[in-house]
Amino acid sequence: MSDDAKAPVKGPSSVVPPGGPGATAVEFARVPMYPEAYFDVVAEVSRFFAHSLGNLLTGLNLTLDMLASLNPADPRAGALVQRSLRMMEGLCAFKETWSGLGGSDLRRFERRDPIALARCVLDQARLGAEFSAEVTGDAATSALSCHPGLLESALQYLVRNAVDAMPGGGHLGIDVRSDSACTKIAVWDTGPGIPVELQSKILYEPVTTKPYGGGIGLMLVAMIAKRVHLGEVRWTSRMPQGCIIELTLPMRDANVARTVP
Amino acid sequence: MNPPVPSDKSILIVEDDIDVRETLSEVLMDEGYKITAFSGGRAALEHLRQTTTLPALILLDLMMPNMDGWEFRAEQRRNAAVPRVPTVILSADGNVEQNMESLQADGYLRKPIHIKTLLQLVERFCGPPEN
Questions:
Q1: What span, in angstroms and rounded, lies between the C-alpha atoms of A152 and A117?
Q2: Where does the pLDDT of residue A39 fall: very low under 50, low under 70, confident under 90, or very high at 90 and above?
Q3: Are A67 and A81 in contact (CB under 8 A)?
Q4: Which pLDDT band, with edges at 50, 70 and 90, does A8 fall under?
Q5: Which among A73, A101, A124, A143 has the fewest CB atoms less than 10 Å away?
Q6: Burial level of B129, CB count in 10 A (0-12/13-18/19+)?
Q7: Is any Cβ of chain B less than 8 angstroms from the Cβ of A65?
Q8: What are the beta bridge partners of residue A146?
Q9: Which of A176, A202, A172, A174 is nearest to A190 (CA)?
């Protein structure tokens, strides 16, 4: 076999839809994406999952082992129980944030109302009384062709990031605007903004201002916007107050017209 | 300045996740090991350059923000000012064994880490616990 014959064939026409070349083939083939992009995203998401769960379970394993071997009168027992509970809460939060990905087919696109999606994400965030939140946008926003699981996960991540940036509470929201070419979804907050030293890296390298986490969440959001939806991500930081992360997602027709390089 | 002195029971932990860092530290301190811990690669490298007592082992997380384990290893191997210390990588990656080989590390611990595996590995590099 020649090298050319072994090389992967690129382009949407080569994509085999899930379940075989049935009724979904035409619809699926209209999504102009290299097959490799799907696998990159799957690999990155899997890596992120393994890393995050590996850390949570390591902490929990070791803490439970320590608890099991402690003398009941050991004064550390209370702190270890508290830590175990905190890590179990971390597991629950992880599940809630990323459950949209569970068992989902990365190649499945659906039409969704982005304002309803934004409202759903804010509802699920269960913000405390110290936060106020709103969804704003055009009432006539068009339905968006998107991967609902991944887009919802990206928005959930951005909302969680906004909440984490305001430990004392604050105001946050999701603004949705669309025209015939694209839908823009902006998640904003009144937190301290993005530190200057991290601004050039946040979408491309693992960075974080938190004492925990791998710092790759924004990279994943960027991958979901750029590689899955062929869109863009932009951020605006208004230090000392406020940050906006805006996803620009092409409408399906614009998506089809776009030429994959 | 005198060269740093190796210490049998001293371990350097480089791990960004605070819960993992604290639980690893506590488990190993309970066994009698002396622990120094950092949340990132840069601070750990700086410590290695300046310390007078070298750790017997470095437990190095691979996936960290700002400076990850790969960069740490590259700098550790490239810079003669950073003393050579056996390094075990910590990772949830399914390819952790291959990563260990390409990083020329001395061992690996796959996350989630279990206490028995951790203590067996540490004992291999640092000797039995003092307790």
A1: 7
A2: low
A3: yes
A4: very low
A5: A73
A6: middle
A7: yes
A8: A110
A9: A172
Check B23 against A62: CB less than 8 A apart.
yes
- For residue A214, give the nearest of A87, A62, A56 by alpha carbon: A56
Put simply, the answer to whether A53 touches B18 (Cβ < 8 Å) is no
Residue A59 is nearest to which of B19, B65, B68, comparing CB atoms?
B19
In this prediction, residue B13 carries a pLDDT of: 97
Q: How many contacts, defined by CB atoms under 8 Å, are there between A and B?
A: 95
- The position carrying tokens 């071997």 is A69
d(C-alpha A249, C-alpha B29), whole Å: 51
Phi, psi of B10 (to 5 degrees): -105, 135
Task: Map tokens 């998401």 to a residue.
Answer: A45
Tell if the CB–CB gap between B23 and A57 is shorter than 8 Å: no
Q: Choose the closest CB to A62 out of B66, B68, B113.
A: B113
Beta bridge partners of A173: A134, A188
How distant, in Å, are the alpha carbons of A18, A48, A156, B123 from that of B119? 46, 27, 38, 6
Instruction: Spell out the residues 6+ positions from residue A253 whose beta carbon is closer than 8 angstroms to its own.
Output: A180
The continuous run of DSSP H or E covering B94 comes out as none
**How far is residue A178's CA from residue A250's CA, in Å, rounded to a whole number?**
9
Q: What percent of chain A has pLDDT over 90?
A: 25
Strands A144-146 and A110-112: antiparallel
CB-based contact, A200 to chain B, within 8 Å: no
Residues in A touching B18 (Cβ below 8 Å): 211-212
Angle at CA A149, nearest 5°, toward A24 and A126?
155
- What is the H or E stretch that residue A224 is in? none
Q: B91: which chain A residues are within 8 Å (Cβ-Cβ)?
A: 51, 54
Q: What is the DSSP letter of A78?
A: H
Distance CA B43, CA B32 (A): 24
pLDDT confidence bin for A64, thresholds 50/70/90 = very high
Give the distance between the most distant pair of CA atoms in chain A.
72
Question: Which tokens hold the place of A80?
Answer: 């270890």
pLDDT digits (tens, 9 = 90+) for A233-253: 998 887 667 899 999 998 754
Compare all CA atoms of chain B with the CA of A68 and give the residue at the minimum distance: B115
